[in-house]
Design brief:
Blueprint (H helix, E strand, L loop, with lengths): L1 E4 L3 E5 L4 E15 L2 E6 L3 E4 L5 E5 L5 E8 L1 H9 L9 E2 L4 E2 L2 H12 L5 H19 L2 E2 L7 H12 L7 H8 L3 H12 L3 H18 L4 H8 L4 H12 L3 H8 L3
Helix pairs in contact: 2-3, 4-5, 4-6, 7-8, 7-9, 8-9
GO molecular function: DNA-binding transcription factor activity; sequence-specific DNA binding
Pfam families: AraC_binding, HTH_18
InterPro entries: AraC-bd, AraC_XylS_family_regulators, Homeodomain-like_sf, HTH-like, HTH_AraC
Length: 251
């Protein structure tokens, strides 16, 4: 994605991928890992998978940035080919990095995404190696989560399109609604309702990618209607489902 925003505010969300961005102009303010952050021109943003964050312009003139989302499987494939193997996936301890080399690598990767697969692969490998070597501090470790929280999450992931109630999640978790809400937010950084909405948005995005029209994607993902999907899709991804189709689906 390459975009300029002035008034758009990203709702708190996370990605199933690693997300790496370069701020080209202006500054973006966001919260991540319990602290306020700012990425100004030339800085790199590095989000681990499922790391909740929001985002908005820090200056009146807004900000311009490029961002690429790289799946964990691709990261693993690249690291498997290098001599610098590590146990577990890399973890980026700081979501904002001041590193001109990383910024240049990300710009290069973004620039070649429309070129040949071989060119893309070479840029991807070079960028991932640079990111892991210069910005990663240690492998990510799997967290041990309370059984009740995992059960509630499993229910949400299995039935995200259904109209679940707080009581349904509490029953699956074996605790009160209040206790589950508090434990869920502590574990994932999102309320169960936000987690469910994010699952629905990801499902809608998959359906759009498969060629389904927005109205069908909204219904299939559990949204009340197309306008409901459009409103939340723009808050999470910065563009409407129609624009997403135009930009991502070949004619």
């Amino acid at each position: 994605m390459h975009a300029h925003f002035e008034r758009h505010v990203y709702h708190r969300h996370s990605h199933e991928t690693y997300s790496f961005g370069v701020t080209e102009a202006g500054a973006q303010a966001f919260t991540c890992r319990g602290a306020a952050r700012t990425s100004a021109a030339g800085m790199v943003m590095a989000f681990n998978p499922e790391a909740p964050h929001d985002g908005q312009a820090a200056l009146a003139d807004g900000f311009t940035y490029r961002i690429v989302h790289i799946g964990p499987v691709l990261i693993t494939d690249v690291l498997r080919d290098t001599a610098d193997r590590q146990v577990g996936m890399p973890l980026f301890a700081e979501p904002v990095l001041e590193d001109a080399v990383l910024a240049a690598a990300l710009r290069r990767l973004h620039a070649v995404l429309g070129e040949s697969r071989l060119t893309q692969d070479e840029a991807l490998h070079a960028t991932v190696r640079a990111l892991v070597g210069r910005g990663s501090t240690r492998p990510a470790r799997t967290r041990s989560l309370p059984v009740g929280v995992r059960r509630a999450r499993d229910l949400l992931e299995a039935a995200y399109a259904e109209d679940l109630r707080a009581d349904d999640l509490a029953e699956a978790a074996g605790c009160s609604r209040f206790a589950l809400h508090r434990a869920f937010v502590a574990a994932y950084g999102l309320a169960p309702s936000d987690y469910q909405r994010q699952l629905r948005l990801r499902a809608a995005r998959r359906l759009l990618t498969e060629g389904h029209p927005p109205a069908d994607a909204a219904a299939g993902a559990g949204f009340a209607d197309q306008s409901h999907l459009t409103r939340w899709f723009k808050r999470y991804y910065g563009l409407t489902p129609g624009r997403f189709l135009t930009d991502n689906i070949p004619n």
